[in-house]
Amino acid sequence: MLSHIALPERTRDGNRQVRGERALGVQAEGIFMRMLLVERKRSERTGQPFALMLLNLETANIRRRTIKEIGNALAFATRDTDLTGWYRSPSMLGVIFTTLNGTDRATLHSVLFERTYKILRQEMDSLQIHKLEVSFHFYPEDKANGNPDSGSDRTLYPEVKRNESSPKFYAHTKRAIDIAGALAALSIASPAFALISVLIKLTSRGPVFFKQKRIGQFGREFVFLKFRSMVVNNDSSIHQQYVRDLIAGNTRATDGAFKIKNDPRVTPIGRFLRRSSLDELPQLINVLKGEMSLVGPRPPIRYEIESYKLWHKRRLQELKPGITGLWQVSGRSRTTFDEMVRLDLQYIEKRSLWLDLKILLRTGRAVVSGDGAY
Prior knowledge:
The chain has 374 residues and is an alpha+beta fold. It has two domains: 2-140, Reverse transcriptase/Diguanylate cyclase domain (Alpha-Beta Plaits); 162-369, no CATH class.
């Protein structure tokens, strides 16, 4: 397998020993970012992995001219299918290694690391190489040997970092609206909070709030709050099987998306809370804590993600999860899971304060009508 991913040797005069077209050279930062995004989307659709290698040249105190020579050397010494460019110009070079042919990641890391240093020794002295920072990032991410709750490798999502730092007005204003909206809603709904709490306590045994671990942005886990609508110590296998069938496309979400119609675990008061969507009110606390937003993709449960296709996971990366979202107001639950994910991705691509306002207004109408809620 190593011969399938081995990099071509570099000759003394700096030319590539290749067959076929010339190397593209070192790509500008904007182009390289676009290449990384395209390669990630291709991987999501095909399941074929790729590796991103980053060289942080800033720590090695290298002259600009030498940096350029290193970039050219990497571009000439990689395969025609690989992509070399600036991850962060002029201090961090990147190489995207595609077509890995099933080679295990530990072997890939070892081979690529060894071949990269062989190239660098022709351009740098030993002290500079010692100070150089080289990192490898694999996509899809492998959580099998690590902490599954550590979140995603944000290095593979540079466009998200730029979205967070560039349109600061949107990010800060959205957060301000979240805080103001959650405080206003909690103030207005405080009598309902008290009444619902009493009714839950009087009609069934157990706590007022249902607490569940959900997955937020970048795979971070948080405690998701709802008013309890089910009996305590219920069997979750019913819901797990329903979710697996929904994600696999074996059933259509016609009765409340991720809520099962006529679920035997639901209490009488719980049916009312679900029909009216009042069970969702405690999520305003999650919004105040910064774990959620008023508008965003729905936060999944860990066992849901285990059934995700790779491209489904994009909905977890770029924004905080929300109480409501585009698919909830676009027929709410009467759609397939793939269509729901596409609506989440559509919201991520087109997000704006105006779109958030429209979704919130449409959510209010949907809640009042009870359309699609169970």
